[in-house]
């Protein structure tokens, strides 16, 4: 689980431990699929970070009713 596998994926991998017909290639495919998912999540988080960072930088944080954060939420 420390590598971000879901419980279902962990169960599947553990099931392969006793499966004498499985190959290392079978396990590698599962790990590669998971890696692709993790990389996509990281890319999405980086995009979110950029947008949020830009939005926070535009926010004046003063007493004015206009707010860049609210504007960004309304535009989303």
State the oligomer: single chain
Number of strands: 0
Give the overall shape.
rod-shaped
| Rg, nearest Å | 21 Å
Distance between the termini: 33 Å
Our count of helices gives: 3
CATH architecture: Orthogonal Bundle
CATH class: Mainly Alpha
Order of helices and strands: HHH
- Helical percentage: over 70%
Structural class: mainly alpha
Provide the domain count: 1
CATH topology: Multidrug-efflux Transporter Regulator, Chain: A, Domain 2
- Average pLDDT level: 88
Reconstruct the topology from this structure:
Layout (H helix, E strand, L loop, with lengths): L6 H11 L6 H35 L9 H8 L1
Organism: Tritonibacter litoralis
Protein name: MerR family DNA-binding protein
Keywords: DNA-binding, Transcription, Transcription regulation
Short description:
This protein has 76 residues and is mostly helical.
Could you characterize the architecture of this molecule?
The chain has 76 residues and is mostly helical. 71% of the residues lie in helices and 0% in strands. It has three helices and no strands. This is MerR family DNA-binding protein. Residues 1-16 form the HTH merR-type domain.
């Amino acid at each position: 689980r420390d590598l971000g596998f879901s419980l279902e994926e962990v169960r599947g991998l553990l099931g392969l431990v006793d499966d004498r017909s499985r190959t290392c290639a079978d396990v590698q495919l599962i790990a590669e699929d998971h890696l692709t998912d993790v990389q996509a999540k990281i890319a999405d988080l980086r995009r979110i970070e950029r947008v949020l960072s830009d939005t926070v930088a535009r926010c004046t944080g003063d007493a004015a009713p206009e707010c860049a954060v609210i504007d960004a939420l309304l535009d989303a």
